Amino acid sequence: MSTTQTYLPQQAGERASPEFWRGIVSCTPVLLGIVPYALVLGAQAAEKGLSVVEVPLMTGLNFAGGSEFAAIQLWTSPPHILLIVAITFLVNSRHLLMGAALAPFLPQLPKRKALPALFFMCDESWALGLADSKKRASAGRYPAFSLPYYLGAALPFYLTWVVFTTLGAVFGPVLGNVEPYGFDMAFPAVFLVLLRGMWKGMARARPWIVSLAVAALTYLLIPGAWYVAAGALSGLVSAYILSGDT
Amino acid sequence: MSDTATLLTIVLMASATYLTRIGGYLVLRNRTLSPRAAAVMEAAPGCVLISVIAPNFVSDNPADLLALAITFLAATRLSMLPTVLIGIASAGLLRHLIG
According to its record, how does it sit in the membrane (chain A) (predicted)? Predict the structure, then answer.
């Protein structure tokens, strides 16, 4: 118990471990949803030549599913390092906004705790942590952001993600080439659901359509993986231009 | 044996991602973004994701195009797991039937 309390100190008279458990309980239903997603990613990564050590290294150090799917989709041997790193940054650029949204609830948290805690910020743990902070703030609880709750919601995600991507890498090759069975369709399926989650109406989605059209044309006309950069950049330029007239 | 290019890619990916996680907290916490910058940042992840799967939309295999249309419909109304299962099943079946 004493070690737990060293890392999760009591906050304003609240005990840390019930808060931690409260976080675990709130994230459990969503955990089941990421298991198949993790298995597919691990299996596809293994098929692209990543080893059983490299897969958990990627998913454990990077810990951002969307960017890992994008990276594996674009993976070649040897990988285009700059392309993959740039795409990773762009896919994860939403974290910048997420961190900014969470920041007003963190003034009491020293940076030496906030910076490691933010390593575990994913879409799900951010959403849970932010919703909980807003609820506690409106109930007059201080501090609004409960670090043990947030860690309870985030750490199971981390463990599940790393463990099941590794299992996917171990058992994927046993199944052999899965393309005839349609498993590769999991990529567009995952991406389309992620896009649906970001959908905020047709007007805001116009840059996506520009991206899709430019990326598809580039793919058909120019060999190599240029289509991602061309599509993403043209979408960003159109978002910049379109935001002027709305 | 891990090769150096793979390890380097992974470490740089992880660094880029961690920068996005702490960047918003460190830089943006005391500022407000211009509406234009916010619109571009908001559009960025979607633009990247759709660009990555763009080749699926111009596949020359009718079975794959049909499966993508079914998956697209599923994604508009179902959650992650059923959509992935429908995508896999439709692609697998249609490839055997017409692919």
Answer: Multi-pass membrane protein
- Amino acid (1-letter code) at residue A44: Q
Mind listing the pLDDT tens digit for each residue in A192-236? 987 888 888 998 999 999 999 999 999 999 887 778 889 988 999
**B47 plus B90 within the same structural domain:** yes
Task: Residue window 115-134, chain A: list those with CB within 8 Å of chain B.
Answer: 115, 118-119, 121
Residue from A91, A164, A233 to probe the interface with B (highest B Cβ count within 10 Å):
A91
Q: Looking at this predicted complex, what is its ipTM?
A: 0.84
The residue segments making up the domain with residue B20 are: 1-31
Residues B40 and B55 in one domain: yes
**B27, B57: one domain:** no
Residues 10-39 of B with CB under 8 A from A: 10-14, 16-29, 33, 35-36, 38-39
Query: Do B88 and B57 share a domain, yes or no?
Result: yes
Residue-wise pLDDT for A5-42, tens only, equals 444 444 445 688 999 999 998 888 777 767 877 888 99
| CA–CA separation, B65 and B87 (whole Å) | 11
Crossing angle for the helix pair A147-175 and A54-61, to the nearest 10 degrees: 150
If DSSP codes are grouped into helix, strand and coil, which group holds residue A215? Answer: helix
Q: What is the residue extent of each domain of chain A?
A: 2-198, 201-246
Look at chain B and report how many structural domains it folds into.
2
Percentage helix, strand, coil for chain B under 3-state DSSP, each rounded to 5? 80, 0, 20
